[in-house]
């Protein structure tokens, strides 16, 4: 048996998706192969403190009645001050310091701003620590729906029509937003440009609902997208980068069947609210699946993504339209990314192995 690799698992964070990140970490802590990896769980509090967390997957289980979170325990984990070392240290509440050893890889399971948007990736790049997932540029692009759509459109990838309204524009001239929905048509979706897990998203059916929807979205971000509502099936696919010289791969597809809700919102995604069924694999012809997979890989490559992603589509009467790309998708027990790869032949531990192996192969 070769020496174990040491993986620092980063989770929690300052975004509104803090608890979902914790639940994702719970899934990874439960599944990662302890014969192959030493794991250092590093939680980030809602205030941004890096603490040494318990290596206890049950602590971060997705509980509808008590969502998991990082509670400050007084420890402080310190990352290297330069690329000359990969050693992590922890300062205990009494002020004593001890080494956590050198890490081979960081697995930043962070969703939303201050984690999925290139900020943590920039920190890791600065000190020379390899990590799972996309780099600074792709993470930033994937987080900002306005720029994601701009890049996709430039690459010839179909996206839903949209208008972007900033907080300043809304404050100075609300007419711009009303003109947008007049142009795009109703119903429309109003969503923060840089948030995930459907946080801050509203479906607007009339002009009277626009102001409230804008306020909800602007509470999450100072830039808001207004999008046309597309009629079609909601289908998602998971993407894995290959090792150097190998092609990017796409999984079988999973379908979100909305029956008793307006849309696939936060409660349905994570709190087991009724009105949503997840079907994997989705019923598609071979040609339909192949076209979707090719578009997903094109989207992944167009933003220079790395490691992993989930690409969300609408399958309309006119064909495939990409809704968004998620460069650090959830790994919770009910998340679509692991579900799609499990249906494609991976086990949960094998999927984690593959993500780590791919990241290390590109860092070499």
Layout of helices and strands, plus pairs?
Elements: E1 5-12, H1 18-31, E2 37-44, E3 50-52, E4 76-78, E5 87-91, E6 97-102, E7 105-109, H2 119-126, H3 136-143, H4 145-154, E8 162-166, H5 167-172, H6 175-184, E9 188-192, E10 202-204, H7 210-218, E11 223-228, E12 232-240, E13 249-258, H8 266-270, E14 276-279, H9 286-302, E15 308-316, E16 319-326, H10 336-343, H11 348-363
Parallel strand pairs: 1-2, 1-7
Antiparallel strand pairs: 2-3, 4-5, 5-6, 8-11, 9-10, 9-11, 12-13, 12-15, 13-14, 15-16
Describe this protein with a few key phrases.
364 residues, alpha+beta, Rossmann fold, D-amino Acid Aminotransferase, Chain A, domain 1, Dna Ligase, domain 1, 3 domains, 5-stranded antiparallel sheet, 30% helix
Provide structural commentary.
The protein is α+β, with helices and mostly antiparallel strands and 364 residues long. It folds into 3 domains: 5-131, Rossmann fold; 142-159 and 230-363, 2-Layer Sandwich (D-amino Acid Aminotransferase, Chain A, domain 1); 162-228, Dna Ligase, domain 1 (2-Layer Sandwich). The protein has 11 helices and 16 strands. A hairpin with a 2-residue loop joins β15 and β16 (319-326). The longest helix has 17 residues, at 286-302. The protein starts with a strand and ends with a helix. The model has no long low-confidence stretch (mean pLDDT 93).
């Amino acid at each position: 048996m070769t020496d174990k690799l040491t993986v620092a698992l980063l989770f929690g964070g300052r975004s509104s998706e803090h608890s979902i990140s914790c639940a994702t970490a719970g899934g990874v802590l439960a599944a990662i192969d302890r014969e192959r990896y030493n794991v250092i769980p590093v939680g980030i509090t809602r205030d941004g403190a890096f603490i040494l967390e318990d290596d206890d997957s049950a602590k971060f289980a997705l509980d509808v009645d008590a969502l998991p979170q990082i509670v400050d325990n007084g420890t402080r984990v310190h990352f290297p001050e330069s690329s000359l070392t990969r050693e992590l240290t922890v300062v205990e509440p009494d002020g004593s310091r001890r080494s956590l050893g050198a890490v081979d890889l960081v697995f930043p399971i962070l969703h939303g701003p201050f984690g999925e948007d290139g900020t943590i990736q920039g920190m890791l790049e600065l000190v020379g620590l390899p990590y799972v997932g996309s780099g600074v540029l792709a993470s930033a692009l994937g987080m900002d729906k306005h720029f994601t759509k701009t890049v996709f459109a430039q690459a010839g990838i179909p996206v839903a029509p949209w208008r972007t309204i900033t907080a300043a524009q809304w404050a100075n001239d609300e007419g711009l937003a009303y003109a947008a929905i007049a142009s795009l048509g109703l119903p429309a979706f109003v969503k923060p440009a840089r948030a995930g897990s459907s946080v801050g998203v509203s479906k607007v059916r009339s002009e009277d609902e626009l102001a409230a929807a804008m306020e909800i979205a602007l509470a999450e971000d100072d830039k808001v997208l207004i999008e046309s509502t597309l009629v079609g099936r909601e289908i998602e696919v998971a993407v894995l980068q290959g090792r150097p010289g190998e092609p990017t791969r796409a999984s079988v597809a999973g379908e979100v069947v909305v029956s008793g809700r307006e849309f696939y919102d936060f409660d349905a995604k994570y709190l087991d609210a009724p009105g949503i069924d997840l079907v994997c694999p989705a019923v598609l012809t071979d040609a339909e699946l192949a076209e979707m997979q090719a578009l997903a890989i094109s989207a992944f490559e167009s933003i220079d993504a790395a490691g992993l992603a989930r690409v969300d589509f609408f399958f309309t009467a006119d064909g495939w339209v990409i809704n968004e790309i998620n460069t650090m998708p959830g790994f919770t027990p009910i998340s679509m990314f692991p579900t799609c790869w499990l249906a494609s032949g991976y086990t949960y531990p094998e999927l984690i192995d593959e993500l780590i192996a791919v990241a290390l192969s590109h860092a070499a």
